[in-house]
């Protein structure tokens, strides 16, 4: 039976106040509109719901039965509307794609604050390289990604927002590589064992492009998938590691001075153009 919810709403107010005039005031409609709505509902249901007199309005047995079902239904709808209109309440899911480095050194403080403010949101984080994160976003496995830029997989079909700039630096154990304060050219740097991320990373793409533009062939001694492991190996003197500058608070390692500072890169927030985001995702973006 197709009955407009508004008819049940009018019935609810008349049934709970037992007054057509009071119902009209609470609903902000005319008393004649209330009467017409009740007549329409009675006709559709095939039952008289109220006994009307000049002095009072009384529910019929059928009206009493209907009220038992309409009252909890409308009250539950009202509670749902109140929950959704409460700006402090946020539920649902938040799906993020990020590399382990960005997650650990950049995102974790934002995730902590967001979780404290919105504990009912379920957060799922998928680790991948910055290039792999774009694939996650393309396949709609995540709502948003935080990755490095430049990134060969990012196209104009994505919306990007720069969150911060950083520089790649070469760090070494000064006891193993006593370079001192002498600034090196990129060509002379290659005389040392270089350690860096795998060729399937944005860092590798970027560094190879920079060195090639200087006529230098970058051929690392050690290639890994973890910046943290690169730092561990640098600490024990296995080579000179290339890592983002925001990873190097460690006093056991020093930055190798270069004659030229490498061009900056960015950490960017990326979403799919034209696809709506959940309320949880939109709220998390505000934290960034």
UniProtKB/TrEMBL annotation:
The keyword Transcription applies. Pfam families: HTH_1 (PF00126), LysR_substrate (PF03466). InterPro entries: LysR_HTH_N (IPR000847), LysR_subst-bd (IPR005119), WH-like_DNA-bd_sf (IPR036388), WH_DNA-bd_sf (IPR036390). Residues 3-60 form the HTH lysR-type domain. PROSITE patterns: HTH_LYSR. Keywords: DNA-binding, Transcription, Transcription regulation. SUPFAM superfamilies: Periplasmic binding protein-like II, Winged helix' DNA-binding domain. Belongs to the LysR transcriptional regulatory family. This is LysR family transcriptional regulator. It comes from Blautia ammoniilytica.
């Amino acid at each position: 039976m197709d009955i407009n919810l508004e008819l049940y709403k009018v019935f609810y107010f008349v049934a709970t106040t037992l007054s057509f005039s009071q119902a009209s005031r609470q609903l902000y409609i005319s008393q004649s509109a209330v009467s017409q709505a009740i007549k329409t509902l009675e006709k559709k249901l095939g039952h008289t719901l109220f006994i009307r007199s000049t002095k009072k309005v009384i529910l019929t047995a059928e009206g009493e039965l209907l009220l038992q079902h309409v009252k909890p239904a409308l009250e539950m709808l009202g509670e749902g509307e109140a929950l959704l209109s409460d700006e402090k309440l946020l539920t649902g899911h938040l799906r993020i794609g990020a590399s382990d480095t960005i997650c650990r050194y950049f995102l974790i403080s934002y995730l902590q604050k967001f979780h404290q403010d919105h504990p009912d949101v379920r957060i799922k984080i998928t680790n991948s390289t910055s290039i792999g994160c774009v694939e996650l976003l393309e396949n709609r496995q995540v709502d948003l990604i935080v990755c490095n830029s430049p990134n060969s997989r990012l196209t104009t079909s994505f919306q990007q927002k720069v969150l911060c700039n950083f520089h790649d630096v070469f760090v070494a154990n000064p006891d193993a590589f006593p370079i001192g304060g002498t600034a090196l050219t990129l060509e002379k740097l290659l005389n040392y064992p270089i350690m860096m991320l795998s060729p399937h990373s944005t860092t590798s793409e970027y560094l190879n492009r920079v060195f090639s533009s200087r006529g230098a062939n970058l051929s690392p001694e050690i290639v890994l998938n973890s910046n943290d492991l690169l730092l561990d190996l640098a600490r024990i003197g296995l080579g000179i590691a290339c890592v983002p500058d925001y990873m190097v608070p460690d006093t056991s390692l020093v930055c190798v001075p270069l004659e030229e500072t490498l061009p900056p890169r960015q950490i960017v927030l990326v979403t799919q153009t034209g696809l709506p985001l959940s309320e949880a995702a939109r709220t998390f973006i505000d934290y960034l």
